[in-house]
Write a structure and sequence with these properties.
Blueprint lengths: L1 H20 L6 E3 L2 H10 L5 E2 L3 E3 L15 E2 L3 E4 L15 E2 L3 E4 L15 E2 L3 E4 L15 E2 L3 E4 L15 E2 L3 E4 L14 E2 L3 E4 L20 E4 L18 E6 L18 E7 L10 H7 L6 E4 L8 H15 L8 E3 L6 E5 L6 E6 L5 E7 L7 E4 L6 E8 L4 E8 L1
Parallel strand pairs: 1-3, 2-4, 3-5, 4-6, 5-7, 6-8, 7-9, 8-10, 9-11, 10-12, 11-13, 12-14, 13-15, 15-16, 16-17, 17-18, 18-19
Antiparallel strand pairs: 20-21, 21-24, 22-23, 22-25, 25-26
Length: 405
C-alpha cells in the first residue's frame, strides 16, 4: 500500500511538473473578461503556452489573471480591445517565440506590462493604439526575429522604450505616425531587411540610423516632409534594393547617401521633392553612368529634375574635381534663431547668396571672405525653415543648408 501511495504521489507530481512546463499546444483565444478571469482555474500551473495567445477582440479590461504566464511559444496578439488601458498581468512573460502584435487598442496608454519581455522570435508590430504616448516598457527587448513595425500611432513623439533592441532580422518600418519628431530611443546595430520611413510629417531626427553600416533590403524615405538632412544615414555603405526618396519637401541635398555602394542599388527613385536641387553625389553618378541601371528622377528642383539633368551635374562634378580645391564653408550655429557665423578659407573674394527652398534669391553679400575672420549673417527676419547658402568664387560654388528655427 505504501509503495502504491508513493507511486501515486510521484505521478501527480509529474503531471504538475508537465503542466508547469507547457500547456495549450494548439493555443488559446480570450475574447471576454470572464475567459481571462477563469484562466488560472481552467489552466492551473500553466506557465508556458506552447501555441498562440490571442487576447481580444472584446470587452477585456484587466489582464492581471494571466500573471502566471512566463512564455508564449507561438504568437502573442493583443488587439481590438477598446477598453483596455494597460498590459499589467503580462509582465512575467520573458519570451515570445512567434510574433508580437499590440494593435488597435484605442485606450491603451501603458506598455509597462511587457517589461519582462527580452526576445521576440517573429515580427513585432505596435500600431493603431491611439492613446499610446510612450513605448516605455519594451526596453528589455534585445532582438526581433522578423520586421519591426511602429505605425499609425498618433500619440508617439519619439521611440524611447526601444533602446534595448540591438538586432532586427527583418525590415524596420516606421510609418504614418503624425506626431513622431524623433527616432531617439531606437538604435539597432543590425537590420537584416530594409529601412522604410513613410509619412511621418513631423520627423526630423534620424539618429536611430547612426550605428548602421548596411541594410539587407531597400532604403525608402517617403512623405517625411520635415526631414531637412540625411547626414545621419552617412554610415550606411550598402543596401540591397531600391534607394527611394519621395515627397520629402524639406530636403535640398542628398548629402548623407554618398557612402552607399552603387553596386548595391537596384533602382534609384528620386521623385517629388520640390526643394531638392543637389543629387550629383559621386556614388549616384557612378550608378547613373550605366544606362541599363534603372532610375526615376522627376518632380524635384532645378538641378535634380530629371535623370539627364543629374547626369549633366555629374559631368560638371567630375570637371570640378580636377580644379583646385577650396575649403568648405562652415556655418555656426546651425540651426539658428537668428545670427550665423560663416567662415571659409578662399584664395580670393567671393559672393554669398541666400536662397529659399525653391531657389529664389533672398539676399547677396558682395564682399571678400577670407581666413582672417567669419562673416556674420542675421536670419532673424526670416520665417522658420530651411534656406540655402551658396558661396561663389571664380571657379567653384560651395553650398550649405542653414535652418532658421
Amino acid at each position: 500500500m505504501l509503495r502504491q501511495l508513493t507511486l501515486l504521489v510521484c505521478a501527480i507530481g509529474s503531471i504538475s511538473f508537465a503542466q508547469a512546463q507547457g500547456c495549450l499546444p494548439e493555443g488559446i483565444a480570450l475574447s471576454t473578461q470572464a475567459q481571462v478571469n477563469s484562466f488560472p482555474t481552467d489552466h492551473p500551473g500553466c506557465t508556458t503556452i506552447q501555441g498562440f495567445l490571442l487576447i481580444g477582440q472584446g470587452n477585456i479590461t484587466d489582464l492581471t489573471p494571466l500573471a502566471q504566464l512566463t512564455a508564449v511559444e507561438g504568437y502573442l496578439q493583443v488587439g481590438l480591445n477598446p477598453q483596455l488601458t494597460n498590459l499589467a498581468g503580462l509582465e512575467n512573460i520573458t519570451s515570445v517565440g512567434g510574433s508580437l502584435g499590440i494593435t488597435g487598442n484605442a485606450q491603451l496608454t501603458d506598455m509597462s506590462g511587457l517589461s519582462g519581455l527580452t526576445t521576440v522570435g517573429g515580427l513585432m508590430e505596435v500600431s493603431e493604439n491611439n492613446s499610446l504616448t510612450s513605448l516605455a516598457g519594451l526596453q528589455n527587448i534585445i532582438s526581433v526575429g522578423s520586421y519591426l513595425d511602429i505605425s499609425d500611432s498618433p500619440g508617439l513623439t519619439d521611440l524611447q522604450g526601444l533602446e534595448g533592441i540591438e538586432t532586427i532580422s527583418g525590415s524596420l518600418i516606421i510609418r504614418d505616425n503624425t506626431a513622431l519628431a524623433s527616432m531617439q530611443g531606437l538604435a539597432p546595430i543590425s537590420i537584416g531587411g530594409g529601412l522604410d520611413l513613410m509619412n511621418n510629417p513631423q520627423l526630423m531626427d534620424l539618429s536611430a540610423a547612426l550605428g548602421l553600416t548596411s541594410l539587407g533590403g531597400p532604403l525608402s524615405l517617403i512623405g517625411n516632409t520635415a526631414i531637412l538632412s540625411l547626414q545621419e544615414l552617412a554610415g550606411i555603405t550598402s543596401i540591397n534594393g531600391v534607394l527611394r526618396v519621395m515627397g520629402s519637401s524639406g530636403l535640398m541635398s542628398l548629402d548623407g547617401l554618398e557612402n552607399i555602394d552603387p553596386n548595391t542599388i537596384l533602382n534609384l527613385i528620386i521623385v517629388n521633392n520640390p526643394g531638392l536641387f543637389q543629387c550629383a553625389a559621386e556614388n549616384l553618378c557612378t550608378y547613373l553612368g550605366l544606362p541599363e541601371n534603372l532610375a526615376n528622377i522627376t518632380g524635384n528642383a532645378t538641378g535634380c529634375s530629371s535623370r539627364a539633368e543629374v547626369e549633366e551635374a555629374c559631368t560638371l562634378l567630375s570637371v570640378e574635381e580636377g580644379k583646385q580645391e577650396v575649403a568648405a564653408i562652415t556655418v555656426f550655429p546651425n540651426p539658428t534663431n537668428g545670427p550665423v557665423m560663416i567662415r571659409a578659407e578662399l584664395n580670393g573674394p567671393a559672393e554669398l547668396d541666400l536662397l529659399d527652398q525653391m531657389g529664389r534669391l533672398l539676399r547677396t553679400a558682395r564682399f571678400p571672405i577670407n581666413a582672417e575672420g567669419p562673416v556674420l549673417l542675421d536670419l532673424a527676419e526670416l520665417h522658420p525653415g530651411a534656406y540655402i547658402l551658396q558661396l561663389r568664387t571664380n571657379d567653384r560654388v560651395d553650398t550649405r543648408m542653414v535652418v532658421r528655427e
